[in-house]
Write a structure and sequence with these properties.
Layout lengths: L1 H13 L2 E6 L6 H14 L3 E4 L9 H11 L4 E3 L13 E7 L5 H18 L2 E9 L7 H6 L9 H13 L4 E5 L10 H10 L4 E4 L5 H9 L4 E4 L12 H8 L4
Parallel strand pairs: 1-2, 1-8, 2-3, 3-4, 4-5, 5-6, 6-7, 7-8
The structure holds SN-glycerol-1-phosphate (1GP).
Length: about 250
């Protein structure tokens, strides 16, 4: 519970937590070292690493590299059971509750659970919901599951409540990496009003203003990934962190 508690504390102290998703296919080697240092200076609260599709990277080496550079927690965001490594601090133990694909809801978890136990990393049970975001995303395609329609916040709210009743620790409203449209703010509001667990919002967030609006609508954790794959945007990291940390 160490990392989960740390995130809860950040939400209490700063208003919300800011996590940066690293896709090791896009940021690795020297670029990763530099990026991690800038994230640390900019007030990022944690790294997510992994994804629904990865080609030709050594995820474990990348996790070790991040750990050697900073004390910021590294949380695996696993796209499959091949993305589990003991060097990380925790992992989001994701169940794709917006879909009806049994393997994504409980199947892979049965395979992964004993491995996680042996590795000793902290699993953080997360109800993961894909939300329609303009066009089909990698997460949607790879998981063979339908997203929740953008104009149906009540479906998202009922699904999130079920996740809480099942004992999950976070609900993650996901528009998908590189999404055209981020998760609608009224959906975040409806979900965060009904559950007492923190709501993570991610996918397609490209401005500090959008991040702040999501926090104002009740998101406890904001995730950005794609936007910072372009080095020209790295000078905006601090602006994002400040927008998320509204209590600072
Ligand atoms: C994807 O929510 C994350 O899982 C981040 O999305 O890459 O679009 O910022 P972006």
């Amino acid at each position: 519970m160490k990392i989960y508690k740390q995130i809860l504390r950040t939400i209490t102290d700063k208003g919300a937590a800011y996590l940066v998703l690293i896709d090791p296919d896009k940021i690795n080697g020297d670029k990763l070292s530099l990026f991690v240092n800038i994230c640390a200076e900019s007030g990022v609260d944690g790294f997510l690493i992994g994804g629904s599709l990865m080609l030709g990277t050594n995820l474990r080496d990348d996790i070790k590299l991040i750990k050697s550079k900073t004390n910021i927690p590294v949380i695996i965001f696993p796209g499959s059971v091949t993305q589990l490594f003991p060097d990380a601090d925790a992992l989001l133990f994701i169940s794709l509750i917006s879909g009806r694909n049994a393997e994504q809801i409980i199947g892979h978890h049965v395979t992964a659970a004993p491995i996680i136990k042996k590795m000793g990393i902290e699993p953080i049970s997360t109800g993961y919901m894909l939300v329609e975001s303009g066009k089909s995303t990698t997460a949607e395609y790879m998981s063979s599951s339908k997203p929740i329609p953008r104009d149906k916040p009540e479906i998202a709210a009922a699904t999130a409540l079920a996740a809480e009743y099942l004992g999950m620790k976070f609900v993650y409203l996901e528009a998908g990496s590189g999404a055209e449209l981020s998760v609608p703010n009224d959906m975040i509001k409806k979900v965060s009003e009904i559950v007492s667990i923190p709501v993570i919002a991610g996918g397609g967030i490209k401005t500090p203003d959008d991040a702040r609006k999501k926090v104002e609508h009740g998101a406890g954790v904001i995730v950005t990934g794609n936007y910072f794959e372009n080095e020209n945007n790295w000078n905006k990291l601090k602006d994002f962190a400040e927008a998320v940390h509204f209590k600072n």
